[in-house]
Amino acid sequence: MATDLEDQDWLDMENVEQALFTRLLLPEPGNHLIHMTSTGIQNLSAERDAGEKHILRYLFACFRRAKEEITKVPENLLPFAVRCRNLTVSNTHTLFLTPEIYVNQNVYEQLVDLMLESLRGAHFEEVTEFLEEVIKSLTMDEEVRTFAEVMVPVFDILSGRIRELHLCQILLYSYLDILLYFTKQKDIAKVFVEYIQPKDPANGQLYQKTLLGTILNISCLLRTPGVVESHGYFLNPSRSSPQEIKVQESNIHQFMAEFHEKIHQMLKNLLQLSPQTKHKILAWLGNCLHANAGRTKIWANQMPEIFFQMYASDAFFLNLGAALLRLCQPFCKPRSHRLLTFDPTYCAVKELNEEEQRVKNVHMKGLERETCLIPAVTEQEPTFADSYNLVTENLVLTQSALHLGFHRLHDQMIKLNQSLHRLQVAWREAQQSSSPSADNLREQFERLMTVYLSTKAAMTEPQMLKNCLNLQVSMAVLLVQLAIGNQGTELMALTFPLPEVKKSALAYVPEFFADNLGDFFIFLRRFADDLLEPSADSLEHVLHFVTIFTGDVDRMKNPHLRAKLAEVLEAVMPHLDQAQAPLVSSVFHRKRVFCSYQQAAYLAEALIKVFVDIEF
Fold first, then answer.
1. What are phi and psi of 372, to 5 degrees?
2. What residues have CB less than 8 Å from 551, skipping those under 6 apart?
3. 231 CB neighbour count, 10 Å cutoff
4. In the chain, domain spans
5. Most buried residue among 41, 65, 151, 389 by CB atoms closer than 10 A?
């Protein structure tokens, strides 16, 4: 550079571009600093900035300085300041297109680190402003390298780093903030939705290995089932007081609420950004749920070794369900007109090709093979919509995710409870008889208690439960409206005896919709009963649902599912057990709802009918 300039020892606009490029190629720029002033006082920050080894960090700092100069320089110097700013963008463009010419520079790592630093330093918006200009430049020139080829190594780095993080690590949420920006930026989001597609869409376990799946797999549940040693939560529970356990659970719930909100926002960004990203993320969700449908099979629970090789984890589906529940909240209100736009014929659509999926907005597969609440009449051909709305698709995806996730974990909780009780009895007996097996039993009890407390914490996050309650109450309203033949978007008044309905839409509603509802209220009664009392005003809708479906084989054929609704009734009833609820006020509102229920006679009749159906 010096030889090119001959006797000139200053920079001007003629040579600044060459000077910047040459400086970027220096392996140790700090060894080539020139002090422009004769003062003996060292300017350490200036030396640090000028000698910055990481090229991307240096270019961004130049961008910030040039941007600041633009606001300060006289008008005659403005073009020079703008040119300097543009040079930082063009050199960053070159850096991403041909990173191999810069020695010992991992530009992709530098991008992730720059974004992390900007989040900590509260100048994230400046970094994104810089990136927007670089992205615009990169997408206009894809001859050397496509924009996807630039972004994939960045996603690889994020995937590797996030995989090592835990739910309660603050750093995790900074990475999620980076991904929130990526899912809002139209060019990056396009690459993201392609990047997360698994190589084999039919392999359920592969979804967990994608970048989105890696995030969904983070939880306070055991990463490796049965392996407590490396687990970070509820270790040695017998040495912790109930208060300490409660504090730890509350801490986990705070992180979970934020975690689920971030995932929800990522999904929402992709759904709203463009038709392309919407289609791709819905296809990912639909294919994922279809590929993991075997999670509900009885054999899957009896062969855990094969189960974990074939399907995504419990944590994955619990988090996915929680995020989808948040997407459903805008229409999960009992009197929502949007709720009644749900079209159950969606569940009868046979498998479509990708273009048909995009046009019709049907991304779930295999639902036409599900057992529905009632069999379709032979000549009953559904009238399919040309295109289904997002309310319909969201509800179906969410119910499917709950069926694959929450349902299985609820079963595990019951089994854990039973095993803990048996172990506790055996341990006490061994202690009383001074048996040498007492220590071994105590250790088994400790390990199992860690699993139980972790599972309970994962399943009882208050906001997730409240969202699920809103969904299930809304589902009770929706199914009741379908049961009385409502095909519009205005609520019909419920009157008894019920009208006869021909060609009922219930013939297209999968049984797992009602099963999820029953499962959830039974779970609340066992493990989170305190949520029912504040929500007592919603319980009348559940009572209507139980009254209509429990005793009516023409609206719900499966007698065992109808018997489950009788359990739902028991679950939501006020239990005046003084040992568990010493304050009568803890069931006051539920008691009021039950005592004032106007269809009590029909409810009693329904309970007798289901008993007769099962027993005789």
1. -100, 170
2. 562, 605, 606, 607, 608, 609, 610
3. 18
4. 1-33+42-145, 146-343+389-407, 468-576+583-615
5. 151
Round to whole Å and give the CA distance between 579 and 414. Answer: 21
Residues 6+ apart with CB under 8 A from 531: 462, 465, 466, 469, 524
SS3 category, 364? coil
Q: How many CA atoms lie within 13 A of 409 on its CB side?
A: 30
DSSP SS3 for 372: strand
Asked whether the beta carbons of 396 and 347 are under 8 A apart, the reply is: yes
Six-digit token string for 402: 């709950």
399: pLDDT confidence band, cut at 50, 70 and 90?
Answer: very high
Handedness of CA 477, 479, 481, 483 (dihedral sign): negative
Report whether 192 contacts 210 (CB < 8 A).
no
d(CA 509, CA 382): 12
CB atoms inside a 10 Å sphere around CB 421: 10
- Other CB atoms closer than 10 Å to residue 481's CB: what's the count? 21
Contact indicator for 610, 551 with CB cutoff of 8 Å: yes
Alpha carbon separation from 387 to 5, 384, 398 (Å, rounded): 67, 8, 19
**Location of structure tokens 């705070």:** 254
Return d(Cα 276, Cα 193) in angstroms, integer: 9
Q: What is the pTM of this model?
A: 0.89
Q: Which of 146, 437, 407 minimizes the C-alpha distance to 295? A: 407
| 186-195 helix and 124-139 helix, angle to the nearest 10 degrees | 80
Q: Residues 542, 572: contact at Cβ < 8 Å?
A: yes
What band does 2 get if pLDDT is binned at 50, 70 and 90? Answer: very low
Residue 256 main-chain phi, psi, to 5 deg = -60, -45
- Tell me what pLDDT residue 570 has: 82
Instruction: Measure Cα distances from 420 to 136, 244, 340, 380, 449 in Å.
Output: 59, 20, 44, 50, 7
**How far, in Å, CA of 66 to CA of 71, rounded?**
9
Distance CA 148, CA 108 (A): 13
Chain-centroid distance, C-alpha 553: 37
| C-alpha span between 10 and 557 (Å, rounded) | 88
- CA separation (Å) from 500 to 375, 483, 544, 558? 16, 9, 17, 19
Neighbour count for residue 603 (Cβ, 10 Å) = 18
The string of pLDDT tens digits covering residues 54-70 is 889 888 988 888 887 77
294 token code pair: 């075997």
CA neighbor of 558 nearest in space, from 369, 374, 298, 380: 374
ω into 225 cis (within 30 of 0): no
For 276-297, the pLDDT digits (tens) are: 999 999 999 999 999 999 888 7
| Paired tokens of 449 | 């208690």
Residue 467 is encoded by which pair of tokens?
């969202």
